[in-house]
Amino acid sequence: MKYFFSSMALSALVYFSACQSGSSSQTNEQQTQEQPAAAQHEHAAASAPAAAAPAMAKEAATNIPDFKFYKVKSGIGFSKADIPTGKNSVFILFDPSCGHCQHEAGLLAKNYAKIKDVNLYFISMNDPALMASFLETFGKELVDKPNVEVLYDRNQEFIQKFHVPQQFPANYVYGADGKLKNSWDGEKEIGFVLAEFTK
């Protein structure tokens, strides 16, 4: 069974690794702003998971599901019960080697003052060694902030419980009540992102 999930991790990584031109990002709500016409490369899905794979979340979870991720810096488990209450929580599924993920992290870092009251979780299924320096390299202003955490999804729970996105970075904004406010795949204009994170 352990080998099955290891092969699933590899399949999931391959699933997200293809890069195509164009913008096919999706949202749960009508968006008033669109990405500029000169869309950049987006990390997109190449094909559907194998039929024997565990059930994958085809729609974004309407409420924060139960999960168990691991803090990259300490290896300590992190679950739904560890999320501070009373504010929005944003989950960003990313790949450390994705240029769009790196760019979004940099823009969020430069605008930290605007998101300091939002729980911000960067989540990846990649090897923690690849994730360890992600913020130090691309989002220095986010390092060691009390509301920001980089989490390792060791058991591929995100794609089973939250959603299988089409592109990286994939953003999921949940309100203080734990209900989904909005989600989108792929890079968006930073003004839109900040507005969605904080409304």
What is the helix/strand order?
HEEEEEHHEHHEHEEEH
Strand order of the largest sheet: 4-3-7-6-5-9-10
The overall pLDDT, averaged over residues, is 82
Give the name of the CATH architecture.
3-Layer(aba) Sandwich
Strand content: 15-25%
The total number of structural domains is 1
Number of strands: 10
Largest sheet, strands/sense/barrel: 7 strands, mixed
Q: How helical, in percent, are the residues? A: 25-40%
| Helix and strand composition category | alpha+beta
**Cα gyration radius (Å):** 16 Å
**Unreliable stretches covering 5 or more consecutive residues:** 1-51
Q: Termini separation (Å)?
A: 42 Å
Output the CATH topology: Glutaredoxin
Helical run tally: 7
Shape: globular
CATH class: Alpha Beta
